[in-house]
Amino acid sequence: MKNFMDIFKIDELKKYVQLKEERINMQVKDFVSNSQELKRIAFEATNENIEPLKKMYFDQMGEEHNELILFAIAAIKSQPEEERQSLIERGLPKTKRYFLKMLDDINNDVI
């Protein structure tokens, strides 16, 4: 019976495995260095998962914003007309441009 090492030629098998590992490492290195392809794959993978979450978030935020707007209008209406503009400017600094545009309609009970 032949020796196990003679049958399989272990040195050649080691060389084959080493060449295969080097080829795989080169493929990985090429893939990683091609950042555009990697970005595209990452974008597609994340975009598929994010889109439903974005839609759900915007739907919920739309409802919440409507609720807050109605509350703010009610709070503005509860003040005397001469104090409403001051209240909007002091209390709503980030959204005052919207409410100041609506102030005439609020004062005339259109809204």
Notes on the structure:
The chain is mainly alpha-helical. Helices cover 86% and strands 0% of the residues. The protein contains 5 helices and no strands. Helix 4 packs antiparallel against helix 5. The longest helix is centred in the middle third of the chain and has 43 residues. The radius of gyration is 34 Å and the shape is rod-shaped. The mean pLDDT is 84.
Portion in helices: over 70%
Helix/strand/pairing class, anyone? mainly alpha
Give the overall average pLDDT.
Answer: 84
The run of helices and strands is HHHHH
Strand content: under 5%
Low-confidence stretches: none
Describe this protein with a few key phrases:
single chain; about 110 residues; mainly alpha; rod-shaped
Summed up, what is this model?
The protein is an all-alpha fold and 111 residues long.
Ordered list of secondary-structure elements with their pairings:
Blueprint: H1 4-8, H2 10-33, H3 35-77, H4 81-91, H5 96-107
Helix pairs in contact: 4-5
